[in-house]
Design a protein that fits this description.
alpha/beta, 19% strand, binds S-adenosylmethionine
Length: 391
């Protein structure tokens, strides 16, 4: 059994469990096969939705102001119910019962991850909430603008930071430029069962869904249709949200109106194809992805390539160059949220910083990591900002 006990579903469980099977899981991790890069089209994800989503609030208490933010998140039991009802993971024979590739096996498993097979994306991990806290504090200081940016969330899982950003966009005035949001997870099943449902919920809980909801409610009142009743958008309360064809169409209309281009990618980090995703990003976010030392080189390569200013494309303008060499003012924002220690797997912030320094040596790039947020009580956690100097 391999269990961090650090995802928020397990917050009340007993302390972290380390046993021999953890050692075995970690020891075999370098032998695991890699998932190829793949795009899951929005249409496929819309088609994968069930007829109803059950959700509950995630509450984030802001460190600086003690205010709270509520975000709607699909209930894990609801994802499990979908997996069961669609037969995903229902064993047809004895051997299938052992198949770790099924979504249901991940949902039912007592383990938090199966290295190289399932990497923990179905559950929400604490540091994703920390990213929201930090992004909100930047926003409140006027240091963070999402509109018109290319954003990538790496190892998104339930995508709490992205749902926060999307909800903010859908709660603002319509923009005259495209905002690009790309979400990456190792597992297709995580994107289908939790990432995309949470993205849809972020829209539903925002003012952008108002015209759809009022149209349905007017039609219901006048007896013009027998559409299900859509509850008021309240991310602070549990809810059951019907999913209809009209609702899916309204979501897609809002994406166009707010000029949001959203795409979903699965596969291992070392297969992530930046050419196919359109190149580097302005904002790169990742949480709880540094737990395994063996994976750090591929994660760092992806972070570096996704953030790196296109030095070979952009002529070396002295002003631009001087901005890039200052870690406090890189031309992109790269944030890595993580626990200081991951018991049983060997990773943590110290190992991550070492890996950053080693990768700098290997690539001849100057990399800097600075801690921009931290929590030192209870389970220690940090948010680190990365910047690479282009020399
Ligand atoms: C522990 S989960 C964290 C999920 C989410 N960021 C959160 O904080 O709730 C780790 C995530 O990293 C991704 N991941 C881990 N190793 C990976 C790899 N080698 N390649 C691609 N994705 C990986 C998985 O998809 C998974 O969603």
């Amino acid at each position: 059994m391999f269990k961090f006990n650090f995802d928020i579903e397990d917050a009340d469980d007993e302390a972290s469990i380390i046993d021999n099977s953890v050692e075995k899981a970690v020891a075999s991790q370098s032998e695991v096969s890699q998932n190829p890069f793949k795009e899951l089209p929005v249409q496929h994800l819309l088609d994968s939705l069930p007829s109803q989503l059950s959700c509950s609030p995630i509450t984030i208490t802001l460190q600086e102001s003690a205010d709270t933010i509520h975000l709607a998140r699909r209930d894990l039991f609801d994802a499990r119910f979908q997996a069961i009802s669609e037969g995903t993971g229902v064993p047809e024979n004895e051997n299938d019962a052992l198949d770790p590739h099924s979504a249901l096996a991940f949902l039912e498993a007592p383990s938090d991850l199966v290295p190289g097979v399932y990497e923990g994306g179905l559950k929400t991990w604490e540091c994703s909430l920390d990213l929201v806290d930090y992004l909100r504090s930047l926003e409140q200081k006027g240091n963070f603008f999402v509109f018109g940016k290319r954003i990538l969330e790496i190892g998104c899982g339930t995508a709490v930071p992205s749902t926060y950003l999307l909800n903010a966009i859908f709660s603002s005035t319509k923009q005259d430029k495209d905002t690009v949001l790309h979400l990456q997870d190792y597992n297709d099943s995580a994107l289908e069962l939790v990432t995309f449902p949470n993205i849809l919920l972020a829209w539903y809980m925002s003012p952008a869904s108002a015209s759809f909801r009022s149209t349905v409610s007017d039609a219901n009142q006048s007896g013009e249709n027998d559409s299900p009743i859509f509850p008021p958008p309240d991310p602070s309360s549990p809810a059951e949200i019907p999913i209809t064809t009209e609702m899916k169409a309204a979501f897609e209309t809002s994406l166009r109106e707010y000029r949001i281009i959203i795409r979903f990618f699965s596969g291992s980090w070392n297969t992530f194809d930046l050419e196919r995703t359109g190149g580097k990003y302005d904002i790169v976010l990742t949480s709880e992805t540094i737990y395994r030392v063996d994976s750090l080189p591929s994660l760092l390569d992806l972070l570096f390539n996704a953030c790196k200013p296109a030095a070979s494309v952009t002529p070396p303008d002295p002003d631009t160059t001087s901005r890039l060499v200052l870690s406090s003012e890189p031309s992109y924002l790269c944030l890595v949220a993580a626990k200081v220690f991951y018991f049983g797997v060997g990773g943590g912030t110290t190992e991550f910083v070492q890996a950053v320094e080693q990768s700098r040596d290997r690539n001849g790039q100057k990399a800097e990591v600075k801690t921009v947020w931290e929590k030192n009580t209870g389970v220690k956690r940090k948010i680190m900002q990365l910047a690479w100097n282009v020399t």
